[in-house]
Structure formats: structure tokens, C-alpha cells
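Tutorial handout. Part one gives the primary structure; part two gives the three-dimensional structure as C-alpha cells.
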Amino acid sequence: MLELHGIEAGYGKQTVLRDVCVSVPSGSVVAVLGPNGAGKTTMLRVASGLLRPSAGKVVLAGEDVTRTRPYARVRRGLCHIPEGRGIYPTLTVRENLVLHSRKGEQAAAQERAVSAFPVLGAKLRQPAGQLSGGQQQMLSLVRAYLSSPTLVLVDEASMGLAPVVVDKIFEFLRQVAASGTALLIVEQYVNRALALADTVYVLNKGRMVFTGKPGEITDDLFAHYVGAGARLSQHRAGRGRRGSRRRSGLQADALSAAAVR
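Part two.
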């Protein structure tokens, strides 16, 4: 669904990504982990067309889109949910939903959004900027449903949210993945990302230092590149319980998030 080949990119004279290669197969979930400043957001910006690479190639559904504008990539099935609440704050919730819906499908899109996050149903006439942080993130995330994309890029969906809201966010992402939509996620809650992902990449100082299955990441590699003190024991103990999150799991997530920060 998405391939990044030998990507180099940055801002001005500063190079952020160096020879980055990522592959997202159709219907799969790929997680990219790494410390702050590793280049994860820059990588997603390159994938969605918001930043043009200085070298390398971006392939979407078999087509070279390296020089294709962002709106054209959206038409090809890509949806980019950015870090920091990707909404129009002065517009109502309903207006936000309409803007991201296909022509003639606005009512159905609104129904799907409310079905995914019922709290939005009571806020349709309210300006999006007046919603709580968690509700704003829900509104941003439902874009993954509204236009029926084939690939969704998600940047730090759980940042700054309470654990109970994080539960809802990841349940929604599991539903999106179960529908056959491919996901490329950058996420601070490492254990949550590993429990959802089929493949994991670790990005450090603009270079990929690991590619493999979640169970193949060693504690030493994880602690070295993602953050000292963050361990994988809790994730491995609960690998088979994707749908349940106990208090100990939340504590492990918080530790991992603190390490990434």
C-alpha cells in the first residue's frame, strides 16, 4: 500500500531523514517507534506529500507519488491524521464531519462517526474548539472512517489524553484495522502500538535501526533506542490479550510514554 525507498528529507539545510525505507502492506498495521527528534513526524509528512524529499521515492498503491500533491494522494486513498488535533476549531462538529465526507455521503458519514464515538452525537452543533482534548482527538480520528481510505497515517493519537480515552482511541484503531484499512502509526504508548502492529520499525536520529515483528525486539535494543528504563516485559506477558488492558498494563504504557518523551 505504501513504500518509502531511500528517503532523505529535512528542513532548509538540516537533514532529518537519511536513507529511510518503510513498507506498509495492504491491510496491515505498521508501527514506527523512536525517541523525540528521531524524525517520525517528518517521515509521515513525506508520505502524505506535506514535505518533498530531497532524495528517494514514495510509492502509493504501486504508483510513484513522490512529486504528487497531498490532495491527489488523498484521492488515491491516503488519510493523514496529524499530531495535535487535526480539526477546524471554529467550525462545528457537524461542519468538520461534512468537510471530510464525500459528496452525497454526508449523512452516512455523520452516522458512522457518531457510531464510532457516541459522545460526538451530542456535540454536533458545538464549535470543535470547545470540545475536550479527548473529544477533539476523536473528531480528528473519525476521518479514518468518513472517506473510506485504504491507508491511514496516525501521528501520536494518544498524546496528552487520559488512559480511559486512550482505551477508546485504540479500540477505534483496532476497528479500522479489522476493516482492512492499512495503518502506519507513530505512537508514544509503545506497548499499545506493539500490541496492534504486525510490523515494527525503530527510527533513531533519522535512520532505521530495526525492522521486524513486535516479538523480535529485545529489551536491550528497545531501551537503547527508545528510552532507558522502558521495558517490554509487560507487552510480552499480555501479547494475547489485545482487547483487555489491566491497571498494570496502563502503568507499563505510562512508563514507555515517559521514556519516549
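Part three, for discussion. The mean pLDDT is 85. The longest strand covers residues 14-24.
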